[in-house]
Amino acid sequence: MITRDHLPAMSLGVSQIIGYGTLMYAYAILLPHMADDLGLTLSGVFGILSLGLFFGGLVSPLAGKLVDRHGGRWVMTLGSVVAAFAVMALSLVDGTQGLFLTILVAEAAGMFVLYNVAFASVARLDLAIPPQKSISIITLFGGVASTIFWPLTLALYNALGWQTTWLVLGIILLLTCTPIHFFALRGAETIPGSPPKSPRPNWPELTGALRRQGMLWMVISFVCSGYIMGAVMALWVTNVQDLGHSAALAALAGAVIGPFKTVGRFFEMLVSRNMYPRVTYALSLGLMFSGFLVLLAVGFTLPGLMLAAALYGMGDGIKTIARGTLPLALFGAKGYGTRLGWISFVQMGINASAPFAFAWLTQTFGGWWSFAVMLLCLCCAFATYLLIPDPRKQPPSSDLTHPQPH
User: What predicted TM-score, i.e. pTM, was given to this entire model?
Assistant: First the structure.
């Protein structure tokens, strides 16, 4: 049953569709055409995007800290205003320098309106549903961002050109996300240290040396699994075309990813009461791995391409939930926003190079090899996941500090 306590997460879910659609997915369609008009190579234009993502990672801890201190309402509202005007400004760029500066501002502003800040913002609200469920609801909506915005951006480009398309996307972002963030997050917030209305799952936190070990391997695994995210968003269409498909079919296959993100997230919501986030993350990695395996083996066929997109979409959808719930389960709610900000700082600081690196791989070796390296990244993510301690299996803290004699 949907209650008032579900509305903030549902509203933020809508804003994530638009935020990711305009600040992430639109690049896959528009940047290659901008490169042609601005005299840049494919790797050059995605190298600029990589620098923008890196700069976004630098400001992510600030966004998380501001949410922990002041709540998410004004952070996300002002962030959406700046992001919208930066997207509109992309319609005016006429050279490398202008493109670089505008993408830098857009991606920095994006860190104040996208998933990590949305997760931390809704976790602070004094609601009768647990933060884990709110996070699942937000991502359930956000999964269709590519489904809507890849075909929409392609249609706008074909009808209007890239300059007007950026202007339209920026106006959409401004007129929808700004009021959503202002009104959806105006509810009462929990006071740090006070018990929330909703019961939290009785999950023990990591302590002592295991806490540091858990953070290290979790972040490394997040980096490896997240490294392909920017590459898929930016290069899916280009790489699939290199497998022998048309641009329209590549965009259609990309649009399949979104609904199956939602399918994966809906499945997670159904079983989340009984599924520990560590298991959720493992499931996501397995599905993504299967998707790339199918893509490499039979991705040159239409059924293989669609199956690969569906499997990858389900895995990526569930992974986004785990990215928010696993740190909460392992390390607790205190300082959650700041913690997500620092995780994002490390992850994006490294993963920012992905669009450039994979664009170079595509340009040099072809789309199949670019996808093969993405599969290798997932193998590394799973290997490091296995090293994350399970706090449910750690000995009591007293045993850690006062070992019993043999």
Answer: 0.74
